[in-house]
Amino acid sequence: MSSSCRTRRTSFKKDGRSDRFLHIDSAMYQTLRTSLLSSARCWDANSQQSYQTLFDRLDTNNDGKVDVAELRAGLKAMGIFRHGAAQKIVSSGDQNKDGCLDFNEFTKYLKEHEMKLWLTFKSLDRNNDGRIDASEIQQSLAELGIHLSKEHAQKILQSMDIDGTMMVDWNEWREHFLLYPAHNLEEIIRYWKHSSVLDIGDSLAIPDEFTEEEKSSDVWWKQLVAGASAGAVSRTGTAPLDRLKVFMQVHSSKTNRIGLIGGFRQMIVEGGLTSLWRGNGINVLKIAPETAIKFMAYEQYKKLLSSEGKKIETHKRFMAGSMAGATAQTAIYPMEVLKTRLTLRKTGQYAGMFDCAKKILKKEGVIAFYKGYIPNLLGIIPYAGIDLAVYETLKNAWLSYYAKDTANPGVLVLLGCGTISSTCGQLASYPLALVRTRMQAQASLGSSEQVSMSSLLKKIVAKDGFFGLYRGILPNFMKVIPAVSISYVVYEYMKTGLGISH
User: Fold this and answer.
1) SS3 string of 413-440?
2) pLDDT one-digit tens code per residue, 327-351
3) Which range among 22-36, 68-82, 86-100, 445-459 shows the weakest confidence by mean pLDDT?
4) pLDDT exceeding 70 applies to what percent of the chain?
5) How does it assemble (predicted)?
């Protein structure tokens, strides 16, 4: 062990400030964190002693193996509360697939993890002085689209700074991330990436983004598969509320008020319990092509709008996302029309998706598959713009006021920001969504009249007032939280199954 390392450890013990910036009032946490990692601060990669000490402390039942429960307890004692962290570490290091880590597997995992941590530390240490300061954190976050003041960058720095120098050296960096599944700052900040995994059934949001490293590997398509699967389960789980929303958008008015209970009762009386899932099949089916087209278009638009070698700014990301959304919607819009018609169909009206398409084509022509296209396209701009703006504002507010101990906001904050921003986006775009649905459903209502977007808006306001533009918004809001929660949980399980970690 080097003399500088030994000196540093001595001074650390003397002033006893290992947890000076961690505001967790737990004597057990203080004791365990110090005892578990005191020997890990200046590890000799060639020595097994430090690994053995840490392994023995985690192996509470002394069976020579560390399972998920033991590791979870150890991580909790060290203040690492991230959902699924213990499972991810065990899954990454478990070579014989017995569900736990023996000492050799534990050692190999930590050595490989340390190498990644070292490479990341070097990439963040821009002036090569062996330490990371607040300005370097600012610069790294700025490249990820997160702009912080120096004061806020210092708060993040403090979570890793042990000796109070307001700089983080390699030993402090390694101690902070040693038993953390994420091995670099980008992975931690990536929690803030407004991901399409938060599927609420309206595919108007900014598409998911991937790093160059992800795009050069097979990670990107696995994440798209995981996201599509999460969306499918989420939409199926909330399909009854989605159908009720469409039912109220089309049939509810001042003279024919339809409430939540009354709407469900009408649908069940007409077609039975399974009728609540009408239109869900095509709603799930359109996820894959829309996701793929949006992702590919988004990458191309980003290249067109950004300078070579530079990170794309937020406003340009919004422009690229909106254009990608428009491209994807144009390609799959006939499926949107089919979804509305199938959702509103009466028992026995159509034999299935192809029968519905054939009857629409025969009776109304090709143009029918693009009814409501203009309000749908216009709806992308307020939805995506407000969704992204609110998300960015909430994200920066959280980092400004609460990022004292860590830059990782945690699952609840992430879901909360996603839910609020999506809800605000829906509020802005909902009247256009209602007009789109009415236009798509015109023929199924027995109307031969071709009503334009502007005349339909005037007609709704004249008949039902301004709030008539928000018919069906209650079930739409009711499905947001379960939709976001289901899609997130399924996404996490799918990623684990496909071998992707954060």
Assistant:
1) HHHHHHHHHHHHHHHHHHHHHHHHHHHH
2) 999 999 999 999 999 999 988 888 8
3) 22-36
4) 74
5) Monomer.
Query: Using CA atoms, how far apart are residues 367 and 57, in angstroms rounded to an integer?
Result: 70
The SS3 assignment for 337 reads helix
Would you mind telling me the total number of residues written for the chain in this entry?
502
Using one digit for the tens of pLDDT, what is the confidence trace for 312-321?
Answer: 676 787 788 8
d(CA 53, CA 80): 19
- Ramachandran assignment for 312, one of left (phi > 0), alpha (psi -120 to 50 degrees), beta (any other): beta
Q: Take residue 240 and report the two structure tokens written for it.
A: 């009854």
* Domain of residue 294, residue span: 198-497
Distance CA 391, CA 222 (A): 25
End position of a domain, from candidates 135, 150, 180: 180
Torsion of CA 301, 307, 309, 315, to 10 degrees: -60
What 8-state DSSP symbol labels residue 65? E
Handedness of CA 208, 214, 217, 219 (dihedral sign): negative
Give the CATH number for residue 273.
1.50.40.10
pLDDT range class, residue 284, cuts 50, 70, 90:
very high
Q: At what angle do helices 453-464 and 411-441 cross, to 10 degrees?
A: 100
Kindly report the CA angle at 107 between 100 and 93, in degrees rounded to 5? 40
Q: Are 27 and 77 in contact (CB under 8 A)?
A: no
**Contact indicator for 370, 334 with CB cutoff of 8 Å:** yes
pLDDT digits (tens, 9 = 90+) for 363-381: 888 999 999 999 998 988 8
Residue 313: the pLDDT is 72
Higher pLDDT, 100 or 384: 100
Q: Please give the model's pTM, rounded to 2 decimal places.
A: 0.64
224: CB partners within 8 A, 6+ apart: 208, 291, 292, 295
Q: What is the mean pLDDT of the chain?
A: 77
Hey, what amino acid is at 309? G
Are 171 and 212 found together in one domain?
A: no
Asked whether residue 144 falls in the same domain as residue 204, the answer is no
Could you tell me the CA-to-CA distances from 481 to 238, 289, 423 in Å, in that order? 10, 25, 10
Q: Is residue 15 in some structural domain?
A: no
Residues 132 and 244 in one domain: no
**Cβ neighbours around 137 below 10 Å, total:** 24
